[in-house]
Amino acid sequence: MSLLGASLEILIGIGLVILAGIMVEELVDWISWRINKSSASIAMILAPLMTSAPEMAVFVIALVEGKKNIAWGTIVSQPFMASTIIYPAVVLVAIASYYFGKRKSRVVRVHKFVAVPLLAFTLPLLPIMFLHPETHGIYGRIYGIVIIAVYFIYSYFMLRGESNVAKEPSLKLKLPFLQVGSSVVMLYVGGELMVRGIYALGILLNMNETALSVLIVPLATVVPESIVGLIFIVKNRDDEGISAIVGEKALYGTFYPGLAMALGAYTLDFASKAALEIALVVSPIESIAIWFGYFGVTAPIGILGYILYLIKVLMI
What sign results for the dihedral spanned by CA atoms 31, 51, 11, 265? Predict the structure, then answer.
């Protein structure tokens, strides 16, 4: 495959996944209305499960095709991208929305409880740094099962509160099952195109596959879940917006890495370790900032971390 062909496959895949993510976002308020649970809890639990479908599609396809580096890269990319790109994006959107008269404040403010899961679900990433699959495979599988269980316990306790959506929200495709089905198809096709394109690009450019999956796949796969959060931020619904982002962090601090570890599909090369290290540095600082009522103070640190990571992996 040529460089142009690989790039086109990635771009088409990105487009399909982003479109699917936008459609899924509309389902958040509808589900909140339908099951009578608070939109914040839906944003924190069910929204990430829906919007993480791009990563799951890439993860499953990569596993089936025997490309474990790409599979693991899609998992470590989310905590990395949240710490380096999504937080600054939230800050910029809040500021822009304020000057366009959509928000009452330039600062994103959320309840302290949001800081707890953000920190709690960053910590499970730390032991992964030491559970090398080539030497501690059995311990990695056991740890994977444990943190999967932790995620389900967390979900049970967080999915509560009554809905604040008064009437049934509209959907682009009118029927929720049709909208979900269409999104799944686009996610699958887009995910396969991205995996193929990334694999081909890695061969053509002689670049580390895990690094490519951390840098390129997230451009499509983290956008859908951040779209959910960003729309809420624009609407001055900070709790729901940050809950969606923190919920994604919880999912990718426990369930998905736990699944990968339980299946023995994780690697600890330079690219994935560097991504995890950045997330482990930025997230605790952000948790402290949220506890004191301020979100996004780590934005400059995150952007610097992304630039440094990019420089490092391009030098591999």
Answer: negative
How far from 177 is each of 31, 106, 174, 268, CA to CA, in Å? 12, 37, 9, 39
CA nearest 256: which of 157, 128, 134?
128
Nearest to 208 by CA among 216, 306, 4: 216
Average pLDDT over residues 127-144: 82
Which 3 state secondary structure label does DSSP give 130? Answer: coil
| Separation CA 4–CA 147 (nearest Å) | 41
> Per-residue pLDDT averaged across 108-117, rounded?
75
- Selection from 255, 266, 263, 252 nearest residue 221 by Cα: 252
Q: Pinpoint the alpha helices (H) of the chain.
A: 3-35, 39-44, 46-51, 53-64, 68-81, 87-99, 115-120, 125-128, 133-158, 176-205, 209-215, 217-234, 238-253, 255-262, 270-291, 299-314
Q: How far apart are CA 231 and CA 27, in angstroms?
A: 13
Please write down the long-range contacts of 230-234, taking CB distance under 8 Å and 24 or more positions apart. 230/89, 230/90, 230/93, 231/25, 232/43, 233/90, 233/93, 233/94, 233/97, 233/103, 233/108, 234/93, 234/97, 234/102, 234/103
Identify the pLDDT of residue 149: 92
Identify the CA nearest to 142 among candidates 153, 152, 133, 129: 133
Question: Structure tokens of 268?
Answer: 């600890």
Q: How far apart are CA 201 and CA 5, in angstroms?
A: 9
Three-point CA angle 89, 93, 98, nearest 5°: 155
* Integer CA distances (angstroms), 259 to 15, 38, 73, 264, 267, in order: 27, 28, 14, 9, 13
Q: What is the pTM of this model?
A: 0.74
Which domains does the chain carry?
Answer: 3-314 (1.20.1420.30)
Please, which pLDDT band fits residue 315 given cuts at 50, 70 and 90?
low
Burial of residue 91, with CB atoms counted within 10 A of its CB: 0-12 exposed, 13-18 middle, 19 or more buried: buried
